[in-house]
Amino acid sequence: MKKDKTNLTGAHIREKRRALAQGRWKRRASAIAWYGLLAEVFFLPLSPGAATVALLVGIAGTALRFYVDKEFHFRHLRFDVPAVLFVAISALSVLSSPDRGFSFYNYYNLVGVYVLTYLLIGQNVREPWQMKSILRMACAAAVIVLLYGYYQFLFGIDISSMKWVDGDAFPELRKRVFSTWENPNILAGYLDILICLAFGLFMKCRNRERRILLGAFMLAAAACLAMTYARGACLVIAVILAGYGALRDRRVLAACVVVIALLFAVDPMLYERITSVFTKVDTSTEMRLAFWESTVAMIQDHPFLGIGWGAYWMVYPEYDFYLQGANVLIVHAHNIYLNYMAEIGIPGAVAFFWFFFGTMVMALRTHFPEMPVRKLRGAFRWERLWTDWEESDILAGLSQGIGLAVLSVALNGLTDDLLFNIPSSMLLWMIAALAGVLSCMSPQKTAAEKKVGGNEFLARFRATAIQNAKEAKDKVQGKVEEKVHGMLYRETPVEPVGAAEAASDSKSAKTTAESSAPEPVKAADAPEASEAPQKPLDPMDELAEEVRKALEQRKQEEEAAEAEAAAKETAAAPKGEVEAETPASEPEQEGADTAGSAEDAASLESDRPEQTELTEEMTETAGKPEDGEKAEKKAEEKAEEKKEAKEADSHEENERDIKGDH
To answer: Residues of 451-485 as b/e, b for ≥16 C-beta within 10 angstroms?
Structure first.
């Protein structure tokens, strides 16, 4: 016994130690994945190499979390299917590349980074409070980017050797900031995304301190955007904010007009740069048109699998209609739509833009409940910026901001391929994963998941099957009951008791009652009346027919026996007694009625007991002549009383017989 107790205690201790160790590993794996995610968010705009290392650490922590935590399951986001199609078709496009080795190397490095970023965000961000931490990291990195951009503008960077501007068209333009990004146009696309995210949060927050801070941040980002002199990005953000103001809030439109006028007044070169879009002063516009013409020719020659992932710079010299052999490396088509169709084919481009625009629409349509507005007055307090910010406001602002940010990338893609840059593409897949997570956090989505439970398709299929089975069961049961009821009650409803009583009083009344009663409808006559073909009876109908015939035969036999007994009793009565009570013709008529057909058996059945008792009373009266007329009167009174009692009893018996027949 002691050994058994010792073994049980040791096993319990070991089990407890294993549980504690498993709990520690769960926390470690979750921490590795989470901090790797935050590190990638922070380093993405600052150092792509550091962001890639952080991504790999976060993926390792996520894989470990799947292994040690059995409650941590893979979560499917809404647009996983087009993302998988894009990855598969892009892999097939490598087969059509002129240099398959280079295309495969470029493919698994870039697409692998995009997919891992999507998985890291989509699988680890599951609570609203995590969004607040991601916002803090993104804001810290954005502030560093803005400060470095201002530093470049103030202390000057000669970009004449970088070929980012036409020196002949704009000889005075010597400064175009690019901050931590490798190109002013790429920085401008990043700033458009930042302004859209800040604008979404600005429109959803209802706190004075936060609105002041977000407004100042948007102005700083707009000023840095003006320093890039990126014409397309400046026009895109102006169109988005002005369109939102015209459709939703006119104050936003007025603010856009004021900011644009202020920037043009401060920097006349910006006005000249923006207006050059609508002229042919700058050679970059003419070159873009030439690139697009060459790209369309590539798509026509390779419509299905394209020219190969990342092989644009290798194939372009064959389709060079503008530069004609100039020693210039053209790496993309300056249009994301044409570039994707050229490199991975039309099917791959359709899959990607299904994922791209589906994410945008999903983000704009994701809604969260609005909390009541709290007006805060008094001095400006920094602690209100994060402490009392409602999670629903953050989620709603992020959702709207992500939708506008994806729209800015789509519009910028008309004149430039921002996704050719690796950090820009990683940022796009990151905000796409955040849009999917926000859709899962939406109250409508959560309520639907709780209502359905588990696999939505299987739950709906099970509920539909149960409902159909129940309806079929009710239909069959109702049909069976209808058939049985119709077979058992084919005859005319039972004649009221009062009709039998009226028939016993006089033959004329009986005849009137029979003539006024409805004619019985027989089962055999029903098909003829409706002129419907006679259908064969099923076994249940045959059984009901046999039961009905047996009940009819038994009833006829009982009526015949009762009629015969009544006739015998009437014939056995003394003639003197009958003559003293009734005329000579009445017994004959009565006997004739008694010996009638089976059709009058029901009326004789109710009259027979009363006649027998009346005969007995008359016999007793005849045996005592000394009583005279008094005895006759008493006998008649007793006979009337007994007759009334018998009528009441016969009424109850008829009701019981009716119920028994049923």
So the answer is: eeeeeeeeeeeeeeeeeeeeeeeeeeeeeeeeeee
Q: Which residues contact 314 (CB under 8 A, 6 or more apart)?
A: 97, 98, 99, 102
Residues 283-335 pLDDT 10s: 677 788 888 999 999 999 999 999 999 999 899 888 887 766 666 678 888 89
pLDDT the model gives residue 14: 83
The conformation of residue 329, written as its DSSP 8-state character, comes to -
Distance CA 18, CA 24 (A): 10
pLDDT per residue as tens digits for the range 177-200:
888 988 898 999 999 999 999 999
> Is the distance from CB of 492 to CB of 518 less than 8 angstroms?
yes
First to last CA, the chain: 74
Q: Which of 201, 82, 221, 195 is nearest to 143 (CA)?
A: 221
DSSP 537-595: PPHHHHHHHHHHHHHHHHHHHHHHHHHHHHHHHHHHS-HHHHHHHS-THHHHHHHHHHT
Return d(Cα 231, Cα 661) in angstroms, integer: 98
- Surface-to-core class of residue 50, CB atoms within 10 Å of its CB (0-12 exposed, 13-18 middle, 19+ buried): middle
Q: Which long-range contacts (CB under 8 A, 24 or more apart) does 301-304 make?
A: 302/96, 302/342, 302/345, 303/345, 303/346, 304/345, 304/346, 304/347
> What span, in angstroms and rounded, lies between the C-alpha atoms of 33 and 124?
7
pLDDT band (50, 70, 90) for residue 53: very high
- Which amino acid appears at position 328 of this protein? V
Is the pTM of the predicted complex or chain greater than 0.70? no
How many Å apart are CA 353 and CA 607, to the nearest integer?
98
